[in-house]
Q: What sequence folds into this?
């Protein structure tokens, strides 16, 4: 089956979305018959297409934002999942640099958080419980004894409401979800919005906001697995990574932070200078053993305010692609795709083996609700949770 994207003159549609038609034959003729002016696979603006239905019949859409330079980002309303980020290499060849699937069923049933909006609490809460204002809250233990990424049905498995928003920076869409009081054991109705903006400076900007009607805890992130050589093309162990962090949070054998902020100096966790990821990932260091590789939170070197600070720089020497991440968050989880085990077939039909993608999840520290010395993740009525993370794409030829 071939999919054709037909750019519909906006004044004719009454919306800013272009239409998409799918047909086995004669798609081109269909577009012409409708008097459509152009037929492209990537047009500046926003496109929308159906992406299937959930088990209860809720329709899921895929949106594609394309900027003036032809860079595009796709995401679906299920889980707010980023399904593709198409960026050029140093020779101008475009590839999709995030892992994913080509169908909703796989995202629903076997997704190891590819591209998801992750919450209400991204990463782990130890013992799947926490205490807030003297009350103990019990969560689903979905990762050994701990709660991971918001529980059994986290924000990654909800269908979000999409709406276009006006920005001066580029094409943008807002996703909204209201998490009911008590959902997955968390107190308070949480009103969440996530805005994806693709700027004409080749940045994917993600703005998160949340408010609550009862005290609760919140930690939101975006969980794309990147491979700057292109999804399904091989390992990320040859990528060079820089992390702007002098300390990290060591973990126990269940990947819960011990509470210590350890210096990275002299350890395989020192990425202050850009370092090839595979260089030290097989070192017999207790923390690497616990994580089966890198699966840790780094404490960013940043002022104690809400400014955007460079957190990470990832470079693929082969393709020349570079991604820089700036964030308002205090931490970043670097996960080297340790649990990928060749059982998943990715977007373009290749299987994903260990370390075929890596995640860089900007966040508050794991298990903060049980760690009074970590920056607080408590949100109270009247306050607004607001964080921003920017992914900037460039090449070493630019
Ligand atoms: C995070 C966790 C990892 C793993 C991935 C998803 O990065 O820290 O241990 O669970 O999410 O597979």
A:
């Amino acid at each position: 089956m071939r999919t054709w994207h037909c750019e519909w003159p906006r004044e004719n549609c009454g919306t800013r979305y272009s239409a998409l038609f799918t047909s086995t034959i004669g798609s081109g003729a269909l577009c012409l018959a409708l008097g459509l002016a152009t037929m492209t696979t990537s047009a500046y603006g926003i496109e929308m297409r159906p992406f299937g239905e959930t088990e209860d019949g809720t329709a899921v859409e895929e949106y594609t934002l394309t900027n003036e330079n032809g860079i595009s980002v796709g995401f679906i309303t299920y889980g707010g999942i980023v399904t593709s980020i198409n960026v050029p290499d140093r020779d101008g060849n475009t590839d999709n640099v995030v892992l994913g699937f080509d169908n909703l069923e796989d995202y629903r049933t076997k997704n190891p958080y590819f591209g998801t909006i992750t919450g209400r609490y991204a990463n782990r809460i130890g013992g799947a419980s926490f205490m807030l204002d003297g009350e103990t809250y019990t969560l689903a233990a979905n990762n050994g004894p701990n709660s991971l990424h918001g529980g059994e049905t986290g924000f990654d498995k909800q269908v979000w409401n999409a709406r276009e928003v006006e920005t001066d920076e580029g094409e943008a869409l807002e996703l909204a979800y209201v998490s009911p009081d008590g959902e997955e054991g968390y107190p308070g109705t949480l009103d969440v919005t996530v805005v994806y903006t693709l700027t004409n400076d080749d940045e994917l900007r993600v703005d998160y906001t949340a408010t609550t009607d009862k005290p609760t805890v919140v930690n939101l992130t975006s969980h794309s697995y990147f491979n700057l050589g292109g999804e399904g093309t091989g390992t990320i162990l040859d990528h060079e990574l820089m992390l702007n962090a002098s300390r990290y949070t060591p973990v126990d054998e269940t990947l819960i932070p011990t509470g210590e902020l350890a210096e990275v100096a002299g350890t395989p966790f020192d990425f202050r200078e850009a370092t090839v990821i595979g260089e030290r990932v097989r070192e017999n260091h207790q923390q690497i053993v616990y994580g089966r590789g890198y699966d840790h939170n780094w404490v960013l070197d940043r002022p104690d305010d809400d400014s955007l600070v460079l957190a990470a720089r990832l470079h693929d020497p082969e393709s020349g692609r570079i991604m820089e991440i700036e964030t308002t968050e205090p931490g970043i989880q670097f996960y080297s795709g340790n649990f990928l085990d060749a059982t998943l077939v990715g977007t373009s039909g290749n299987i994903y083996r260990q370390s075929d993608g890596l995640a860089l999840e900007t966040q508050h520290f794991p298990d903060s609700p049980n760690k009074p010395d970590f920056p607080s993740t408590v949100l109270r009525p009247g306050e607004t949770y607001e964080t921003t993370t920017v992914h900037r794409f460039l090449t070493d030829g630019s």
User: Anything to note?
Assistant: The first strand starts at residue 2 and ends at 7. The chain has two domains: 1-43, 52-395. The longest helix spans residues 27-33.
